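Task 17 of the worksheet. Students: predict the tertiary structure of the chain below and write it out as structure tokens. Keep your answer in the requested format; marks are given for formatting as well as content.
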Amino acid sequence: MVSIPEYYEGKNVLLTGVTGFLGKVLLEKLLRSCPKVKAVYVLVRNKAGQMPEKRIEEITSCKLFDRLREEQPDFKAKIIVVLSDLTRPELDLAEPIKEELIDCVNIIFHCAATVRFNETLRDAVQLNVTATQQLLSLALRMKNLEVFMHVSTAFAYCNRKQIGEVVYPPPVDPRKLMDSLEWMDDSLVNDITPKLLGDRPNTYIYTKALAEYIVQQESAKLNIAIIRPSIVGASWKEPFPGWIDNFNGPSGLFIAAGKGILRTMRASNSAVADLIPVDVVVNATLAAAWYSGVNRPRNVMVYNCTTGGTNPFHWSEVEYHVNLNFKINPLEGAVRRPNLSLQTNPLLNLYWDAVCHTIPAFFCDLLLRLTGHEPWMMKTITRLHKAMMLLEYFTSNSWIWNTENMTMLMNQLNPEDKKHFNFDVRQLHWAEYMENYCMGTKIYVLNEEMSGLPAARKHLNKLRNIRYGFNTILVILIWRVFIARSQMARNIWYFVVSLCYKFLSYFRASSTMRY
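Model answer:
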């Protein structure tokens, strides 16, 4: 078979969701590793008065594209920006560009979606289901289309404990739901949402399952493949380790823990944290499109792009590495030393939430008000609690994903493609990955300079000394107020101290006899 770069040579690619995390990494990798691709059409809408061309200029000027800029200085000439709104009829395309796309596009990568877990059902359906249907409608008219690559999520069927590489029947008929939402008012939609979701945790998961069914229905007319990444995190290797540019998913929690704000969260220590590096997802996506384009399989190819089955990494390990890395390479302006603790018991988690989050935030804001500053801590803690509630379902459960198609795809690559499009997560070393991930949040999300590390470490030591001093004062106060004034309390105190002394004396004597 032809290699992956050879397959993309001379091809016209249509890409949606390029302004998102996964989409921009896919654009960079495609242009860098398949330099003879003919053109990449990117569908972009106006946002906050900013034209699509300006948005793409900002994306391609960021750190992510430094390596591509060095290797291919004229890469921007291959990017064709197309004004479009996926939720509007005919994608809101101008007629000339629509005809151009119908005539020349060979491969579609559909990455666009809303990833907000708390999106209203109406908006989630419009952005994840209706938009997919609109794009499929255009794809069916394309004269030279070879592959329609749909990016879904491994959690689309998280109501099942074992998830195969197949499209399962949807909870409702997507088209009937879209028709119903046309005449329902917002209050009615909000009322029926919990009943529709059933045992699925949010509208994102629900609508991604519906979108998969919509895509599968066109498999008789289109060559379709679906890739399902789990929790997408910072890059593993490409274009450089640790690249991340957003607070979504675990990244926001890591930063909050590094700042010392997040102290406790609900999670199962034994649950698998199915993190997947973004470059692994991108490499697998490009390889999957290549395989479907070359082999033309009869059925829809579905790929569960996960790590839990082949290289598991648990939430207890996430806790350890986040605390360790942010103590070694601290974030600037930390309010407390990093000390994230996971709680399995919900009642215990509520207790530590109050002790570690709510009460300190209240007194912090009180102090800020007294000193004439704007209070901000309670607002931050409230937002943090909302984010943790949305993620709690995924940090407290584990799933078993079938990954036979991923293994098959890996075995189809020639040695050179295995090197340049590596998605073998068995090679992933989690300690090194987490170190780069935490450093990536510092450098690329918070834009902190490495030259500021000595000052950040000094500040962290200062916070440690303050904590020790506070604890010492607290012990003295407890002694003076409670123990020193009560004969019973003193007796209990002396009994505990003497017991500890006897235990230490026995331990020392046993050690002496042994030697």
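Marker's comment: The chain has a mean pLDDT of 90. The chain has 19 helices and 13 strands.
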